Amino acid sequence: MGALPTTEKGRLTRQRIVAAALEVVGENGALGASLDEVGARAPASRSQLYHYFDGKSDLLRAVAEATNDAVLDAQHDLFSGLGTWAGLVRWTDALVALQQERGGKGGCPIANLLGQLGERDDDLRAVLASGFDRWESSIRAGLTAMVESGELRPGTDVGWLAASTLASLQGGLVLAQARRDPAALRGALDGALALIGSYRTTC
To answer: Are the beta carbons of 14 and 5 closer than 8 angstroms?
Structure first.
């Protein structure tokens, strides 16, 4: 791992490099991204790149961490409402609306990066897996709150429901991306809601 910045200027420089790397990876893919292009985009000298990052793999790790944060931070306010049925529906509606805005393009950034790097670099796979873990944990926390409030039946397996919901979400995003049809995500999430709804204590 490269040097961690100790000054505000250093932190801004490193953030600028990571932001440029995110753009380059988004345009060219992780394997097609070059340090020279990242440096030109940042802009940052090669010595700066190697000061903050040991090489391309280290920079891609920072990209993976930033991708996790971007995907999950964008849902922060929605996650806070997952403790109610209405909040759960609102979260799914927001995810579908985003795909409608994008015309089904893009898919899940974490999954996209995992597809490019997961079988090539186990450390990067683990970083991206931690993003899914955080995502699943947020869903599980909301479902747990619903059990505690009495909205879901006592004894509901919230871990299984959270994993199933995330799997439905990811599968729906893949189909929406492949078909350029957000309805695929809507159908997958409606299935997840139906499953969770079968554990509700009230209609």
So the answer is: yes
Amino acid residing at 183? A
Residue written as token pair 């999430």 = 189
Q: What is the CATH architecture of 8-54?
A: Orthogonal Bundle (1.10)
Question: What percent of the residues of the chain are helix, what percent strand, and what percent coil, each to the nearest 5?
Answer: 75, 0, 25
Of 40, 21, 49, 12, the C-alpha closest to 113 is 21
200: β partners? 152
Name the amino acid, one letter, at 62. A
Q: What's the CA gap between 37 and 201, in Å, rounded?
A: 56
Q: pLDDT tens-digit profile of 149-201?
A: 999 999 999 999 999 999 999 999 999 999 999 999 999 999 999 999 999 99
